[in-house]
Amino acid sequence: MEYIYKSKYRDLVCGADIKVPLNNGRYITGVNFDNAATTPPFISVMEDINNFAPWYSSIHRGTGYKSRLSSKIYDDSREIILNFVGADINYDTVIYVKNTTEAINKLSNRLCIDEDKNVILSTEMEHHSNDLPWRDKFLVDYIEVDKCGRIDINDLKNKLIKYNGKVNLITIAGASNVTGYINPIHKAAKLAHAYGAEIMVDGAQLVPHGKIDMKPIDSDEHIDFLTFSAHKMYAPFGTGVLIGPKNVFKKGCPDYKGGGTVKVVTHDEIVWDDPPYKDEAGTPNLMGVVALTSAIRTLSSIGLENVEKYERKLRQYALLRLSDIPGIIIYCNEDKNDKVAIIPFNIEGIHHSKVAAILSYEAGIAVRNGCFCAQPYIQRLLNISKDEMEKYINNPTVQRPGMVRLSFGLYNDFTEIDRLIVMLYNILQNKTYYNKKF
Asked: Of the candidates 333, 303, 329, which has an alpha carbon nearest to the alpha carbon of residue 316?
């Protein structure tokens, strides 16, 4: 395997070489292996934000030059988003929200209008944000995963047959935020459409790491709805995206009502505006939209196929090094190429929270630990029974099961993985000491 001393994309990212403090008072160059939660911003994004800032103004209906310029940037951004994911400009719309969580909540509110189709098929691997919003509005059933955590596409078909036309939507992660598995979204779309359902893809973990194509609307593999978050693709300031057919969002009332959502208001009548404006109440997060479109330009110039290729090398190298360490438990290590760059693991005899703390305070290495907002999935992967879960439900002070997660970005490099491996050996050799200290 080609050894890469420094990622050629490293200089594109803010703070990649910033010093962080250790427990002993020293400072060391930090390592961020928590990119599945939030990525640092591109330098180009921050430059575009600073360049635009003097021209920032309120959008729509303002006649001043800054307002007209801000409105044009905001409105033109939707075409950039749609082109980026292969959506249909004439058929689909982009609704800006805070993040993927809000996008899924918004869609759940809109789809619950159809009382004849009252079933949502989710999967056992979903983030809470693609599970909880559906529970109070629909009958939710879960597509099974196998012992390795991969979805069972045959179970999806069986459930579609079972519900006999009552399925409103199949909602599925593009890639798991726990195991990194990339789901067969187009195969699932084909099944959904064959049985009269639609499909939504939670693209939060997929869109930043590889090319996604919603496909033409006349394709049986077409993705009906897509959501993703800017903060996971090198663009800060809190913007999320919900993409779907314009006619779906013409129905019903908006979640938030107020300025910018209406055409006509009297004391007796309301005429809601057309989508997407109906669903974007108040002054929007224009800076966040500028950041997102800037990040898309940078990712497109790099080429998402190059991002995917490089991050796969990082993951493969990390797995190679981790597999040599006795006492490391690596989860769901099948289908090595059918994943985004995520690795969940544990160290025998040390709680996951301690491992994460040791890596941070002793080595300046940032990881994530716990259940990653996917508790039912983690329970399945760790074989935790319902009876055992009652113990944690009844006593919140008991240390909860979970994992340590490594998640790589395009700016990480092999030397950072080497630092991690050295520290893991150190933890294993001094397990008693660290268990007492942390």
From this structure: 333
> Residue 386, exposed/middle/buried by CB under 10 A (0-12, 13-18, 19+)?
exposed
d(CA 311, CA 104): 27
As annotated, the residues of the chain forming the CATH 3.40.640.10 domain(s) are 45-300
H-helix or E-strand spanning residue 170:
strand 167-173
Reply yes or no on domain 45-300 having CATH 3.40.190.10: no
Q: What is the CATH code for 10-32+303-437?
A: 3.90.1150.10
57 and 253 Cβ atoms separated by less than 8 Å = no
pLDDT per residue as tens digits for the range 178-218:
999 999 999 999 999 999 999 999 999 999 999 999 999 99
Would you please indicate which residues are annotated as catalytic (active-site) residues? 373
* C-alpha to C-alpha distance for 291 and 354, rounded to whole angstroms: 35
Short-list 75, 197, 145, 181, CA closest to 377:
145
Residue 107 φ/ψ, nearest 5 degrees = -65, -40
Report the predicted TM-score, pTM, of the whole model to 2 decimal places.
Answer: 0.96
From CA 392, how far away is CA 390, in angstroms rounded? 5
How confident is the model over 110-168, as pLDDT tens digits?
998 767 779 999 999 999 999 999 999 999 999 999 988 999 999 999 999 999 999 99
One-character DSSP codes across 315-353: HHHHHHHHTTSTTEEE----STTSB-SEEEEEETTB-HH
